[in-house]
Amino acid sequence: MPPIPQRRQQFGRWHAAFSAELLDRRIRVNTLTPGPIDTPVFHTVTGSDEEANAMKEAMGNFTPVKRVGTSDEIAAAAVYMASDDSRFMLGAEILLDGGLRDL
Questions:
Q1: 95: Cβ–Cβ under 8 A, 6 or more apart, which residues?
Q2: Separation of alpha carbons 3 and 29, rounded Å
Q3: Residue 51: which residues within 8 A CB-CB, separation 6 or more?
Q4: C-beta of residue 77 within 8 angstroms of C-beta of residue 32
Q5: Average per-residue pLDDT in the chain?
Q6: In what helix (H) or strand (E) does residue 32 lie, and over which residues does it extend?
Q7: pLDDT of 54-95, one tens digit each?
Q8: What is the rounded CA–CA span in Å between residue 57 and residue 51?
């Protein structure tokens, strides 16, 4: 089995491969890739509100924008991708991670 970064690279462009495969059927495949997002998961994996907030702050500080994203930010991107406004978008990725991957 290849190392994890190599496996991620192999899997990472699946949306482009599917888009090429489904192009003649007029099916577009794009990907929404979130980074750390403020969701209830912080409370389910910690024992208190204080621990949850500390975890969110720590994860936020790890991103270049120094915060976690919001569900509204993810929803806005999903609505765009589902709308006719994205009809020229094909085999693409919207990366909503506060610059975590690329900066």
A1: 33, 35, 101, 102
A2: 27
A3: none
A4: yes
A5: 88
A6: strand 31-34
A7: 999 999 999 999 999 999 999 999 999 999 999 999 999 999
A8: 10
